[in-house]
Amino acid sequence: MNDVVVVGGGPAGAACALWAHQMGLAVLLLEASPAIGGLQRRSPYENVWVPGVQGKTGQEIAAAMQAHVDAVGVRYMTRTRVQSIQRGENSWSVECEGSRHQGRRIVIATGSSPRAGGFRESDRVGIGPGLSMERLDVVDKRVAILGGGDNAFDQAAFAMRRGARIVDVYCRRAPRAQRVLQRKVPLRSVRVGTFEADQCSMTVNGIHYDIFGVQFGFEPNRPDGLNLPSRHGFVDVDQQGAVAGFPGLFAAGEVTNYWHPCVSTSYAHGVQVAKSIQRDLQGT
Hints:
Layout: E1 2-7, H1 11-22, E2 27-30, H2 58-72, E3 75-77, E4 82-87, E5 92-96, E6 99-108, E7 112-114, E8 125-127, H3 131-134, E9 142-146, H4 150-161, E10 166-171, H5 179-182, E11 190-192, E12 197-198, E13 203-204, E14 207-208, E15 211-214, E16 218-220, E17 230-231, E18 234-235, E19 249-251, H6 263-282
């Protein structure tokens, strides 16, 4: 019997499993992908937002997470996709493809994924930031970035630096991106208002583009089969990371949208949940 089963090996899940392990709890971390690291595995860009970490890309930060859990001996399984999470009499059962795992406490740290908004990945369409966009050839191409958040303006600036001939950003409402990011894109290239983007014709409001960058934000990877309380689609948790109405069930990181989503806040939330579970199991 595990004290804690953590579902998801991104920053929140890795931090939660690491801290719980260091505090002497029996931990098992389950990750669907081939490696620990979450969305950072998709990012070839330097991440300048993690305090004390300089000159490292998101992919390098993900590799460091993997190395850390390896070094301290956290038990984990990769390529392990969770099919269902069920409540037992005194524990929880996590059903995976070909295996079952029990835990006194469960942490959902399944993170989030880029919103597709009805678009499909192709050799001309990237969905979300990072590798999805970097794989596209934008040199001397007309690029339309759809969305008005931080990633939209970041990706527009990257496309310009990589040699795109034209980069236009389409926002249905006033841009939400930080001012420091908005300043990277010429005002004349930002089009605010209703737009219709057609992937078949590669047009936006009738204007032809070679490349689409779909940057509609992120949506939570909620586990199937649990009717969990929701806040704007994300799993709702209290200050301890506990899910109301589900004793012994916790959630951490971007699946909860508890704080402004980023690596640093996900780390912190994972640690907070690990401490909450330690106190919970000790009855303090």
